[in-house]
Structures are given as structure tokens and as C-alpha cells.
Amino acid sequence: MTFLSLQLVQFRNHRKATYSFSPATTIVVGPNASGKTNLLEAIRLLSTASSFRGAEEATLVSWGKEHAQIRGEVLDGKETTRLTIHIQVDGDSGHTQKKLLVNNISRRTQDFIGHLPTVVFAPHELELVNGAPSLRRHYLDSILVQTNLAYKHALAEYEGGIRRRNKILERLQEGFGKRDELDFWDEHLGLHGTTLMEFRAKLFKFFVEQRNPMGIFFYTYIPSVKGISIKQRLVDTRERDIAAGMTLSGPQRDDFTFRFDGHDLALFGSRGEQRSAILNLKLLELRYLESVLDKKPLVLLDDIFSELDDAHRRLVFQAVSAHQSIITTTDERLVRRKRGLTMIELS
Q1: Surface-to-core class of residue 82, CB atoms within 10 Å of its CB (0-12 exposed, 13-18 middle, 19+ buried)
Q2: CATH 3.40.50.300 fits 1-117+298-347, yes or no
């Protein structure tokens, strides 16, 4: 698989631009605020339909404009796939509409994702260690939606079910509605939530079975529901959920931890240990995607080399050497040159 080109129209600070990429390595060099990370963000949007920075869709459109377009071409074997995202912002209400197309045919999010598998290395991912659990759940989802249609379907169904169940809980909290309205949604969430947890557990099983590239790091999955079915937990905690006006158990509460040398890195890890744990995890992610998809993901490296020492840089280069990679940097001297390299300069 090769990512061939990217066309941006009114996307962040890229008013109108087209970029072509080497099948080996492309370096995007430029000063801070020149749009390097924005370029990688656009590619990741074509991959997962969401921003790796957690940005709201309205902020993706150039300031003062009401629409943006991202278009990319992916070559897989002899077949070229065109991926397009249109974002429209209502100037009065600020409401945003996003349209996803594959070869100019409109697709649902779960059918759009998967045509361009990617792995992102970015400095902000240090937040995975000691940030909110929602960041870690989003990270798990960003891996698994790229690998399996069943997971994508279960996630969409589960998230929709949570919204519907929470609306019923809010009404019950206010004294309206009937408790048996929750029966269907308890069953629905039990079915699809179990699928999510099974895939997440298999992902961590893969991590455990791999030789760690950077030392002995442990990543432990912490499911919200243990020793009982999700449906039964929802039934058992129904009164608590009504009092809270929201669903308090299930995969939307899952988490995982980082450990090294017997201690929790979120509580006792140095910045260096946390950085190494994240880098190790990303290398395991790369292995996982490649093993499941039987193809090499596109690697996106966002100005990470300025934070790494020479040993860690060499490790990253070794890990991604067989993959197509797009690397942003303010200093091209930090990036190892190799055959087939393309340079994009931003100012």
C-alpha cells in the first residue's frame, strides 16, 4: 500500500495545496506554525475520519471560510482508491456537517475507515500515560477500527445505544418514563459492549506476547466490567444509573495502565520512562496493524526526533525503515536520509 497524494482546500492554514509523497520517506520541513502537523492531521483524517489532536470539526476549516476539503489517493496493488472528506460549517449556527466519500461514493464512517491504515508518532501522546482515561480509550479505538469491521460496527452501535439509554435515564431521573424502557438497551449494550471488550483484550494479549522493542514495559487492560456480563451489570446498577442520569458501567469506562520495573508510570515514571513507554507502545501498534491487515501501515511522525536521543532515533528509524513514512521536522538534519526520499518545504 502506498499513499500517493494529498489535496487540501481551505483546511486549517492550507488554503489550496497539493502534495505528492515518496513510497519510501517524505520529509516535511518548515518552521513552527507553518502547517506541518496540519498536513499529517489531514492524512490521519482520511485514515480514521477523526483528528489525532481531538479537534472539533469546525476548527478544521480555514478561518473565515465555511467549507474545507481533504482528498487523498491510495494505491493498493494495482487499485487506486480516492478518499474525500467535505466539511461544511453553517456560518450562523456553527453547526458542522461532514461528508465522507470513497471513489466519489458517499460512505458511512465505519465503511470509510480502513482504506488507509496509519500509525501516528506525536509528542502529545505522552498524555496517554497520565491523561484522562478517555484518551486511552480513544487510542484503543483508533487502532481497532482500522483492523476489523465487526469492531467498527460494534463501536457505532454501542455509542448510539449509550446515547439512547442515557436519554431514558435522564427522563427517569426527572420522574418521567418507565424503567422497563431500559430493557432493550441493556440487551443492546450487552451484545455490542462484549464485542468491544473481547477485541480490546485480544489486542493486549498481542502486546504481552511480543518482545518489547525498548525494554520490559507492561500494558494492562482494565475492563470496567469483570466477572459478570455487561447486561447483568446494567440491570444490577440500574438504580444507581437513574440517580446519576447516565450509564456508569461498560466499555465507555475501560482503561489501561503503563508499568515499568514494577511501578505505575502515571504515578512514579520519569518523563524519559514515559516517553520510552509510549514509543514502545507505538512500535507494538505498528506490528499489530501489520500482522492483522497483512499490509504495511503508513507511518506519520510529527516532529518527534527533537525529543529523542540518538539511540531512540535509531530504534524508530529501524522500526519504520520498511514502511512508507511521512516525517515532519523543523530541522532536516535530525532525519536520516535514505534512497527514495522526497522533501516538502513549508514556510
Answers
A1: middle
A2: yes
